[in-house]
Amino acid sequence: MALPAPVPAVGVVCLHGDEVLLIRRGTPPRQGEWSLPGGRIEPGEAATDAAIRELREETGVEAHLTGLLDVVDGIFPSAGRHYVLIDYAAEWLSGEPVAGDDALEARFVALDQVEALIDWSETRRVIALAVARRTPG
């Protein structure tokens, strides 16, 4: 089966102290797995605006984007999906995580628990990248 054209989407690595904000996905692909908040970029919407909007919709959290981390191909043949994921680093500003939109759960997770909770190696890699690029302070 041929995949449809890639869909532009965003992901947000929102750090708060020694924790990262994660959601448990409520829809395919990777349904039920822990992941980063994010989603599709709407027509006419800037990628950075989409990142802030998706973070708010899925978790209720407000954050400040601190930079672009990477662009990742999320190719999921079993779900018939191909996303071009634009991943941003962010620092928490306010709000307690509450699952919304298509997230089943949302919570801050200790950075030392990321390896055990997250199945997809690309998600683990971009979280590590965000932590490595974080400005001490």
TrEMBL record:
PROSITE patterns assigned to the protein according to its UniProt record, in alphabetical order: NUDIX, NUDIX_BOX
Family assignment from sequence similarity: Belongs to the Nudix hydrolase family.
Keyword Hydrolase included in the entry's annotation: yes
Gene Ontology MF term list: hydrolase activity
Alphabetized UniProt keyword annotations: Hydrolase
Name under which the protein is recorded: NUDIX hydrolase
Entries under SUPFAM superfamilies matching the protein: Nudix
Cofactor: Mg(2+)
Occurrences of domain Nudix hydrolase (ranges): 5-133
Keyword check for Hydrolase: yes
Domain of life: Bacteria
